[in-house]
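Subject: design request, 298 residues
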């Protein structure tokens, strides 16, 4: 464990600050995952309507993720972090307002903009790490970045549960969502701390830029997992609320507890890679994930 701790301590400070900024953006994502659909249910939306609006946040991501990845080649990445740091909290507040006022067009637009702004963080963090972290710290930095969602879910889950337990009337779903949206702006504090110039590699010839057979081979199991997870995980709060009578506090506790296991696994990723290597570690864990999704559906 001491060796693992030193791995993370050696991560370059600009990379650490970007990951800390990512944590606060993920606080917004995690809190909305827990409470948004339940809040929409409170506001009179049917389950079909709520989940129908939910899909729009992924529409912008689907349309723009690949073009953005190509656009980043040979260009600075840091400005996109500021777009996410400002855009995700503000569009989240727009989503809450649109739900409260039942503004159909605003809700769709805000969800699409939310997805685009969130993509400016999630799509760009990995290339930033690959550019600015040394080979010795890359694996630790990547696993730490991937752990931000787990950490944010645990903290927001525990916080939401505790606040709802203290006073459900004061800490309504609307106020909780608005509070975590404002909290996301703290990501800017860590972005402003970065003073080290960003490493921007020269652009390479297009025909040598990508190893498409390897990319497709890696994408197939990832897409299978993403499809299964996308059809189940975002809608679990509604399932437990409707079938088991859970309220926001219960869903928050369940999310936090389940995510602790995910966080532990993510932190141990560098050790798993050292023991099994990239190929077996990635393939093996993806196969396990597919099996767990099948079990969950059963």
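Subject: RE: design request

Done. Sequence follows.
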């Amino acid at each position: 464990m001491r060796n693992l701790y030193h791995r993370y301590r050696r991560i370059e400070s600009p990379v650490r600050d970007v990951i800390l900024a990512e944590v606060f953006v993920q606080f917004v994502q995690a809190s909305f995952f827990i409470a948004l659909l339940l809040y929409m249910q409170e506001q009179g939306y049917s389950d079909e309507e709520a989940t129908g609006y939910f899909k729009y946040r992924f529409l912008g991501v689907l349309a723009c993720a690949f073009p953005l990845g190509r656009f980043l080649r040979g260009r600075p990445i840091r400005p996109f972090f500021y777009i996410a740091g400002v855009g995700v909290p503000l569009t989240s507040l727009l989503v809450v307002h649109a739900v409260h006022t039942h503004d159909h067009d605003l809700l769709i637009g805000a969800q699409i903009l939310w997805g685009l702004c969130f993509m400016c963080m999630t799509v760009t963090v990995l290339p930033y790490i690959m550019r600015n972290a040394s080979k010795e710290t890359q694996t630790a930095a990547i696993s730490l970045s991937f752990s931000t969602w787990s950490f944010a879910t645990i903290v927001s889950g525990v916080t939401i549960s505790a606040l709802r337990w203290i006073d459900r009337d004061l800490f309504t779903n609307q106020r909780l969502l608005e509070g975590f949206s404002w909290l996301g702006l703290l990501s800017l504090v860590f972005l402003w701390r970065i003073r080290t110039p960003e490493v921007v590699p020269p652009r390479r010839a297009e025909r040598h830029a990508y190893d498409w057979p390897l990319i497709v081979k890696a994408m197939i199991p990832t897409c299978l997992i993403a499809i299964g997870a996308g059809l189940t995980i975002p809608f679990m709060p509604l399932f437990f609320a409707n079938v088991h009578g859970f309220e926001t506090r219960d869903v928050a506790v369940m999310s936090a507890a389940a995510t602790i296991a995910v966080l532990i696994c993510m932190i141990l990723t560098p050790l798993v890679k050292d023991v099994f290597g990239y190929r077996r570690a990635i393939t093996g864990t993806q196969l396990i994930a597919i099996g767990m999704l099948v079990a969950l559906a059963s």
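The chain has a mean pLDDT of 84.
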